[in-house]
Amino acid sequence: MPVLAESLPTAGAVLAALVVLGLLFRPKRNAHLRLPPGPPQDPLIGHLRSMPATKIADTYHNWAQKYGDVMHLQLPGVSFIVLGSHDAAVELLEKRSAIYSARPKFALYELMGWKNILPFISSGERFRRHRQALQTYLTPESSLLKFGDVQTRAARRLARRMINEQPEDEEYERYLSEFSTTVAVYAMNGHEITSEDDEYLALGDAVARTFTETGPPGGTGVDMFPFLGSFPGWFPGAHYAAVGRSLRPIARRLLEHPMNEVKEQRAAGTATESFLLHQLERPDALLDKEELQGAGATVFIGGKLTTLSTLTVFLLAMILHPQAQLKAQEELDRVLGEAHLPTLADRKDLPYVEALVQEVYRWNPVLQLGIPHVLEAENEYRGWTIPKGAVVFANIKGISLDASIYTFPSSFTPDRFLPT
């Protein structure tokens, strides 16, 4: 312990010296540019001291009220551009996607084994093949046909448990987690969860930890200085490297086990409809083995995390806004009566329920900051210069509060999405 205690200041001094030397000798390529506005920054370290550790999207939104909807933040060696309006996000990330589609290097996620997860793949041929494989299979129309029955069974089981068992708060969370895992794993490899001790339930919770316990995506010390990935966790800046290494077996399990199951079932003639089965049976394989494992994990992670977060926000909204809950219940009773419980096929006949769902998405978006993009060539916008290599992302939470689009944006008002 004394040796370790003595080594900490030394390691910190070495790291600090490396950072300072890197800053001092880095070409000041942005000094001549007219960058978008942003908060005051410090010499050498830019906005490092003022970057928020919590409520990041809210902080960026508050800053945008003062500095504008296109905001520049500087960290050692990299410029960040935060887009806080719908117009700016569409113009740059969609209309100019040819130069705004690259991804930064997510060194920590790669360390854990997530290099083939779609949001972390940079633009190019590999990205296009992954996206094609996912988009051609998981269309909204086909998903209803392929997975609607399983989703309906899982939803009714969830409803019965919440009504009949009067669970405590932590049990609510467990029930929602089980539902989201059930939906996600079936889409991935056709496995339907029917018991509380199913191995995929524990795996789903463990996979969620690989994202909730590893800091902001692309924003850890390992992402900024990838060489820290091999350093012990006590070394300054390398904490998340140790966490990432400890979580690597979880990623490996999700990548390998589901596809092995599908291959075994396919050989036995017992495989059921799923994304992985569909890709394995394609005569024109889009993805190699590791890429297909990553694409399958993308299906699971996207379905698990977004569904769980959305349901949690929905329950919060219903608790805080019982009048909206009552209005939705009245529509369900009026349209469906006692004939049957609602299914996905009924959505078209339930305009208020559909509007309520859209307002849940807007009111508290589960993905509050968009996936970061990297600008591949210097670009002009509104008289500002956005430098090549800048990391650009949308503040989705801020856009959802844009008063030029949404009247009284802080209020929960499903009626705003009703057809006029």
From TrEMBL:
Pathway: Secondary metabolite biosynthesis. Its cofactor is heme. Keywords: Heme, Iron, Membrane, Metal-binding, Monooxygenase, Oxidoreductase, Transmembrane, Transmembrane helix. It comes from the Eukaryota. The chain crosses the membrane at residues 6-25. GO terms for molecular function: heme binding; iron ion binding; monooxygenase activity; oxidoreductase activity, acting on paired donors, with incorporation or reduction of molecular oxygen. InterPro entries: Cyt_P450 (IPR001128), Cyt_P450_E_grp-I (IPR002401), Cyt_P450_sf (IPR036396), Cytochrome_P450_fung (IPR050364). Signal peptide: none annotated. Belongs to the cytochrome P450 family. This is Cytochrome P450. The lineage of its organism: Eukaryota, Fungi, Dikarya, Basidiomycota, Agaricomycotina.
